[in-house]
């Protein structure tokens, strides 16, 4: 019986040392994805920048890899910004996103020297210009606009329909003009350009090409009709990965190259000159590098299902419950055995929807104590994990060349109690 190896290490050994549930990252795969993106996203007509979207997976260790790759970092909260700062990410390479950044978060960004704020709306622009003047801190801004593209992905991860909560619709040109003019009046705020992001887990190029065409047309109109000069354009992230054999994503390097070439071609056609083009991959950098290891516990047959229970669940990976996301899995210590039985792999959270893989083909020899591996769990698993049922967040290890290092320790019962208190409030 063969056992799965990750980064040159037998995963049963990893489970013995670290326990389960365990999230293992193959560090070399993360590095390959950064290299594929940065080396292929190049142009001799404009500068390019790959900006890693922290929301896919954030911790000091991954931010360290962002720094090593020379990439930028997209953060969406004070918490992600704080972690980036603590990890030594150069603050000028940080892009701060979000539709409702608080005054405290904006001040924090200004004080830490965050490079760019991606503005979402008019009220935020007003608040930022006031704060930048008060604190006398310079800041660059991009404005997030919404090109109104319906990407073929789950509705919860589609971000660019005409009534999306993110950004301003590009149809609202007067509103955009007034926001940009307000930013340009400020001595501290420097308007750089626009940002758009159309959704996530998009596996084909058409939607991105369409977004680029719409954005470049919009940039020309803003120049010709309103005298607004755009230097930078970010077309966001959203590049899909392979979760199951049905997913056929375009490799990240190819996608990056296609986007740079498409932008060159369309810029020439539309008579637009950009100084810089940015992409913001999250999932495609870390997703396929992640493996979730669970120990199989009890099993149970109902009239229609063979349940196989594991020692994690929706508290460490909410994606199947939230988006009906599909994953593939194996019994990691029975790799060569025929997969001759259909199981429903369920977690241990107190929720009927706590199903990790609805229909998994696995050997009928699967039994208590086996190790189940779920593939491609590196994005939006840990970062969306919760303490539901006071489940502790799993340990995370990075493996490479036969060596393993713990980068996030397992959350203990004591860790969870650290917020419990009993303090009288002064009313
Ligand atoms: C603004 C923005 N940029 C980048 C991303 C990263 O997306 P993905 O992880 O799908 O590449 C997201 C998430 O969808 C986003 O909202
Ligand atoms: N969290 C989502 C993607 C949303 C990305 C943020 N705009 C997922 O797990 O697929």
Automatic annotation (TrEMBL):
SUPFAM superfamilies: Alanine racemase C-terminal domain-like, PLP-binding barrel. Its EC number is 4.1.1.20. The modification N6-(pyridoxal phosphate)lysine is found at residue 55. GO terms for molecular function: diaminopimelate decarboxylase activity; kinase activity. Pyridoxal 5'-phosphate binds at residues 238, 280-283, 380. Its cofactor is pyridoxal 5'-phosphate. It is an enzyme of class 4 (lyase). Signal peptide: none annotated. It catalyses: meso-2,6-diaminopimelate + H(+) = L-lysine + CO2. Specifically catalyzes the decarboxylation of meso-diaminopimelate (meso-DAP) to L-lysine. NCBIfam families: lysA (TIGR01048). This is Diaminopimelate decarboxylase. It comes from Anaerovorax odorimutans. The gene is lysA.
